[in-house]
User: What shape does this take?
Amino acid sequence: MDAIDRQGLRTDPRPAQLGVDDLPVLARGCAVMGAGGGGDPLIGVLMAREAILESGPVRLVDLDDLPDDGLVMPCGLVGAPTVAIEKLERGTEGVRLAEEVRTLTGREVVAIMPFEIGGSNGLIPLTWAARLGLPYVDADGMGRAFPTMPQMTMNIAGVSSDPCIIADERLNTLVIRAASVGWTERLLRSAAAAFGGAAVAAIFLMDVATARRATVRDSVSRALRLGAAITRAESDPVGAIVAELDATVLTTGKVVEVTRETSGGFVRGSAVIEEAGTGALLRLEIQNENLAAVRDGEVRASVPDIITVLDSATGEVVVTERLRYGRRVSVIAFACDPIWRTQAGLQVAGPAAFGYDFPFAPVAPHRPGAVTEVRR
Amino acid sequence: MIAALDLRLGIDVGSTNTDAVVVDRDDRVLVKAKTPTSVDVTRGIAAAIELVIAELGDQRGRITHAMLGTTHAMNAVIERRDLRRVAVLRIGGPATRAVPPLATWPGDLRDAVVAGATVVDGGIELDGSEIAPLDLDAAARFFDALAGRTDAVAITSVFSSVSDRHELAAGELARAIFGEVPVSLSHEIGTIGLLERENATVFNAALGGLAEHVADAFGAALGTHGLDPAKYIAQNDGTLMAFEHALSYPVLTMGCGPANSLRGAARLSGADDALVADVGGTSTEIGPIVGGFPCESDEVVGVAGVRTNFRMPSLVTMPLGGGTIVGNGDGAVTLGPASVGYRLEDETLVFGGATATLTDAAVADGRIELGDHPLPRERCRLLIAALRRSDELLAEAVDRAKIARSEPLLVVVGGAGFLVPDDLAGVSEVRRPEHHEVANAIGAAIAQVGGQVERIVHPGVIGRRAALETVYEEARSRAVRAGADPDRTQIVEVEEVPLAYLTDPAVRIRVKAVGPLALT
Assistant: This one.
């Protein structure tokens, strides 16, 4: 694929296709973009691997290379990642989703798009793209991981959540035609619970022209680049991640305290990290994902920006469930897609949307000329 | 079982040495021995027994209990030998087919172990209902096709930690078709995470024959000395299982070395809570002991390139030991990671060799007197600098091994324990107990019998207390089946982890019950 963007700035080339060897690399990037949640990408690697071994590599395409009126299907897993690592999928659920989309709309899906790049959902839809013989769109609906459906850029851009299709491994299929995205979310949760705690869904169906303005562009190749940088880094993987993302290092030290409780279907808690050398304390607020980082009573980073905890030595992502005393970690934060920093974006995905009363505290803003802004 | 407890024989088969000790009722070491581990593990065991029995003399008849800890099963997997042919049944269809059984196994290991593998409909949902009715007909067809080619069966159902009923039904079917074939059920082996638990269950089935072989050899070696004590096998978590019981659960014992070492060291130093550092020739392992038991790691355990999730002690390992080579790169001191290893007495400076090692550094600093060659004065500055760097790395590893902020006691064992300074940062005291070189065998000899259970429960349905109580009861009964005294079996560990992103709260509960050896 071409490596020149519209302003003539050189960007990293997008690979033409995704094969078995790309999967672990993509998984590393998706993990970092998962903000401590989003489920274990490994399960996505294994699923996609089987599908690609059977059906061949998947083309990775930019939305500019698809016809304006083509139908894009954003999709992924909904529900509990803990269920997904135990009750693995059948592998053809996404094929069922695409069939149902055809029945409902009378149109063929031209490309599969992950609705969430962070965590396992950056990889799981690749399984279906392989089995359907369709390309994978180099974009997603979050640029990170979030817990709910309204927290997708397509929602902010005004794409309708009607219809939303949900299916399980028995190929039980339910079409949700809700009055609002809030109701879609509510009905989707109940359906996922009835299906056993996890299921797959397609939502925010749109044509390519709409997708070009309603999604986070280049997020698959961004995850791939990030994964490649980590893979290449020999001595300083954390440094490689920070450089690749232009991230802020909030602290480097050790976890000295972790508390957790389950309330309202979410695991809430906090972790305290003591900085090496200074002894300064950073508190992480957690609800499935890392939501805020507080130091000396001051919010240093918060949703919708992405806060990720990395193992200081290996650069591996430490997901929220695995935070525990003594772990040597670096806490990094990096800028979310600009759409999340708008008033509409903050309303659905800012601190207030997660029940906090502090205002959004952005980390280093996007550099002018950074790829996502240039493309808009 | 026998009527009284007198002397206990503990054997630990390590990768290099096989150690044996005999302890009395107060856990005092009466005799100890060390022999090289033989290629055929059983000869090393016999040799070690021979040595301690000879030293024990007339007292040998007082041995009432014998405990064996061995990690030879790990080697069997790595070398693909002595493995049973396993029929691998997964119950989870139509779910789970996206990743077939054994998908990530190296081809040659798969060829060595697997008689056949399939997925049949069935399995459990998180709420206890069925994914689909269990397809016993399909399971029967699968088993029938493998009759005559199968030595063991491994059965894994989705969410068997919620309900084991599909695994139990398929297990009965396997016995009906194959006869007295050993059947491994995943809910007795591993934790949540279908693929890792399935892999561990297949290993368990494959290793049954080897376990029987070693058990027979152990019994025979004791028999040649006229002994027939009650026999136990050490588990990965630092507890024991009665022999007959252990034969069914080899993967629960294949990584018992670290737990034995940690527990033995702690007991030798008289502490129930401590950090233990085992400093060898090439590496150092540090792990915490809490309430007399090692802490369990939640990391995935790789065995011969296959991910499993059976429980192992939490350990910090670093490539630093007595043989670690000291270098001088660009004026800065470098430590390893290369080591002269077992050639220490040929290659290191104080023994007249040409390679500077951390052992030389410890001699230069006066921490130990060793060897017969004086150190060249011009190298002493580098050696001292190397030892300072080693002290820093040890202090950091010790801190990483802690489970909470504290200054614990550090118990040092292993051949190169002299590398650890008495004033190491971050610990309250450094203890170097007598008999530390046979800490593993002591750990096996002093252990109690234990059982662990892991379940997913819905506290919303029956209440948290009632939910916990059912799991407690199951853990107690498992410990008793493993040979613990029912009247004195206690719950020693409870871990509760809420599962994320669920609307109906579910909690993963792990309970460990431990009791003294049952006497009749």
User: Anything to note?
Assistant: The two ends of chain A are 19 Å apart (CA to CA). The longest strand of chain A covers residues 248-263. The domain at 235-354 of chain A is CATH 2.40.390.10 (CV3147-like).
